[in-house]
Amino acid sequence: MMRVEPASNPSAKRAVITTSWDDGHLEDLRLADLLETYRIPATFYIPRVDRLLGKPVLSADQLRQLADRGFEVGAHTMNHTVVTTVPDDVARSEIADSRKYIADATGRDCPMFCLPQGRFKPQHVEMIREAGYTSYRTVEMWSTAPPRPRGNAPFTEMPTTLQAQPQSPSSIARNLLKRRALSNGLLYLKLGRAAGQDWARQARALLQHVLTHGGVFHLWGHSWELEEFDQWDTLESVLAQIRDAADQAELLTNNELCQRG
To answer: Which one of 26, 42, 70, 120 is least enclosed by Cβ atoms within 10 Å?
Structure first.
C-alpha cells in the first residue's frame, strides 16, 4: 500500500480532510462500516426516493441510524431530481421539502444540500438559501479550496477534490471547462494526469499536496458505483491513506468544514 509521507514543511498550513457520499443507496451501510473502521467522518446526501436512477434508497429509520452513529446526513432533493430539468416551482419544492424530510428522519437540523449531478442555475442557489441551508455541495473536481462564501454569510458553496471512481481525462476536462476552473486544471496537470485513471494514486498525490501546502482534500462518491465497478478494495486503500494522514490534518464532516470558516 502506498503511504502518505509526513509533511516536509513544519510551518505548512493545517490540512483538512472531508468526505461525502451521494444518493443513499443501500450499500451506504457497508460504506459507513468502512468509514467507522478507519475513523473517518462523512456526510451522506440522501433523497427520499431515487426516481432518477431507479435504485433503492435507505429508509427514514436507516437515516436515523446513520445519524446516531455520528455521520452527517444532508439533503439531495426528495426524488433525486436534477433541478435544471423541472419547472422552478417543482425545483423549489424538491429543495425545501428535502430539508424537512432529512430533519424529521434524523431528528437533527439539515444545513447541507447537494445538487443531483451538480447541475444548477443561479435561481436554484437562491432557492437553496431560502430553504434555510447554509451550504451546498457541487461536483466541481480537483479543488483543494475551502468552501466559498456566496452572498451574505453564513452561506457557502463547496467544491470537491476527487471522486472515488476512475475518471477519464476527457471527463475531468469537461468538468473543469464547464466551471472555468483554471487552477483546478493546473493541479490536475501537475498531480493527476500522469496517474491516468488510477484514483488511489491521485488520492495519494493530492493528500500529500494538502499536507504540505494546506487546503482541503474532499473525497466524494457513490456507494452503488463502488459496488458496480468493484472499487471497494481501492476505496479501502485510500481510507487507509487518510487514516495515516489523520495526525497531520483535521478530519471534518462537510458542515463542520463549512462552519470552520
So the answer is: 70
